[in-house]
Amino acid sequence: MPGDTTTSRPLGVALTISRHDVTHHFALRAATYDRSSSWCTDSALGELLLDMTAPRQGDRVLDVACGTGLVSRLFTGRVAEVVGVDVTEEMAEQAGPHLSRLVVASAEDLPFEDDEFDLVVCRQGVQFMDLPAAVEEMVRVVRPGGRVVIINLCAYDERDRAEYFEILRLRNPVRRHFFLPADLTDLLREAGCEPEEARSYVSVEDVDVWSDNGAIEEERREAIRAVYRDASPDFRELHAVREDDGRFVDHMLFVLAAGIKPSLPRSGPADS
Ligand SMILES: C[S@@+](CC[C@H](N)C(=O)[O-])C[C@H]1O[C@@H](n2cnc3c(N)ncnc32)[C@H](O)[C@@H]1O
């Protein structure tokens, strides 16, 4: 749920996760990040985002938590301006060549004017952020009538929630939030957007490749395998888990949730 924070758990998770913890984690991953999940460079997922956002030549696009610029690159050359913002320099410097402008800053305090962008996108970023503050910032900097799109891995539903969240937590110890599909739309609505649509995409991941992210130890990778080995029938079915000689393949769910910033401030209770 949005707002969940990490509590003390096995395998050395800290009670609180600092900004430094996040940048340290992604600095370790920066060199190999683009190869760390099949979804990173999955062109079908990219096409789905382009189809949802229908970018126009004159658009100004902001990619929040741009990382190495994999999402930014989808828009480069199609729009007037692509700005990327991220807290981890080692990730963001790889995005630089694909951007009109790169800003190293946190999503919770975006150094942009109100209404500056036509489109704000954020893929696999909100799980590390202060919520709802970061999404409120995304809505603040998009123009009235403009779109905010959040793209994130989610559990399918209550049946796989506990096991999948445990797998995600083991794979990324600096992750603070875990989502069900409706949570992304709720985040947009609560930050002031009118929900527009939400689409799903299933990404096929070889768990051994996916867990080899350069920032976690073998002990955690083995703990991830153990969750798959002991997975419930519901989890196995929802994730269409395949096992071959101790290696697992998972069908992970992405949700792409879009909202539109209202053109007029939303009315409060009628004045009496
Ligand atoms: C999983 S990567 C996603 C990168 C990119 N959006 C993509 O889809 O490939 C997460 C990124 O979020 C960045 N990040 C985490 N917390 C952030 C924050 N509070 N503000 C800005 N960026 C943040 C990290 O530095 C990292 O580059």
Automatic annotation (TrEMBL):
The keyword Transmembrane helix does not apply. Pfam families: Methyltransf_11. The keyword Membrane does not apply. Residues 62-150 form the Methyltransferase type domain. Coiled coil: none annotated. Keywords: Ubiquinone. InterPro entries: Methyltransf_11, SAM-dependent_MTases_sf. CDD domains: AdoMet_MTases. One of its GO terms (molecular function) is S-adenosylmethionine-dependent methyltransferase activity. It comes from the Bacteria. PANTHER family: METHYLTRANSFERASE (PTHR43591). This is Ubiquinone biosynthesis protein UbiE.
